[in-house]
C-alpha cells in the first residue's frame, strides 16, 4: 500500500519547511495543493517556496501555470492524481502540502458530480449582487447553508454564486454535496498539521506580509495590473494593492488590509481543519526530537 502524507494548516504556519523535512527524510517528492502557488507570476504574494527550498526536494505544481491560463479544481484533481500515481512507481511515500482546503480534498477524496451552473440562477444572483452588493449574497448563503458559509471565502463572489446556485438547483446544502466521500483512492492518507496559539500565528502572518513587501510585492503586483480582472488575481495580497494603484487606498492602509484579510483566511482554514478528526498535530517551532517522534508516529500508521 502506498502512502500520501498531507501537510495541512493555516497560511504562514510553516508547512513548506515541514514538507521539505519529510520529503528529505523519506527521500521522496512534494505535490503542492496551494492553488495560488500554481501561477508563476505570483511568487512573492503567495509565499511560494524559494529557489533554495525548491532545490532541497523536488516540487510539483509550483509556478507551473500563467495567470492567463484557466485552471479548474477538476483539472487539478486529475493532474495531481496522475502525478502522484506516477511517483508511487518509485516511492512508497509522497508528500502533499498546501492550505487550499478544497484542493487537498479533491486529491484525497475526489470531487463530486455537481450540476453545471444554471444560467437563470446565475443571472438572478448577478442582478442581486449588482443591486444589493456582495453582502446580500453572503446573507443568502448564510441562511441556506451556515456550515459552508463558515469556511468559504465570503469575499469571492464566484464561490458564493456557485454554492447558492447548487443549493437552489438541488434543494440540498452545498456543504452536504461536498461532504460525501468518494473512494477510488488506492493509497493510505496520513494528515499532519502544524498548530500554534492564535496570537502567535497572527503575529507570524503580519511579519510575513512585511517581508513580502520588502521582497518586492509592490512591483510584482504592479506588473500584473493589466490582469487584475482575472480570477487568479482576485486574491489576498493582490486585490488590496490594486486598490492602492487605483488611488482608492493609501499604501499603509492597503498593507494593513492584506494583513487583516490574511488573518481572516487563516481563521477560515482553522475552522475547516478543526472539523477533521484525522489530523495529527505538531506544535509550531517543533524540535528535532519532536520531528523524530513524528516519524515514528507516521511509521506506526503505515498499513501492515
Which structural traits does this protein have?
six-stranded parallel sheet, 304 residues, alpha/beta, 2 domains, Rossmann fold, 10% strand
Polypeptide structure, described:
This protein has 304 residues and is of the alpha/beta class. Helices cover 52% and strands 10% of the residues. The protein has 14 helices and six strands. The longest helix is centred in the last third of the chain and has 24 residues.
The average pLDDT score comes to 93
Low-confidence stretches: none
Helix content: 40-55%
Specify the CATH architecture of the largest domain.
Answer: 3-Layer(aba) Sandwich
Q: Strand content of the residues, in percent?
A: 5-15%
User: How many β-strand stretches?
Assistant: 6
Radius of gyration: 20 Å
Main sheet: which strands, in order across? 3-2-4-1-5-6
Oligomer: single chain
Question: CATH superfamily of the largest domain, called what?
Answer: P-loop containing nucleotide triphosphate hydrolases
Question: Into how many domains do the coordinates divide?
Answer: 2
Spell out the helices and strands N to C. EHEHEHEHHHHHHEHHHHEH
> Total helix count?
14
CATH class of the largest domain: Alpha Beta
Q: State the end-to-end distance.
A: 9 Å
| Global structural class | alpha/beta
Briefly note the CATH topology name of the largest domain. Answer: Rossmann fold
Brief overview:
The chain has 304 residues and is an alpha/beta fold. Helices cover 52% and strands 10% of the residues.
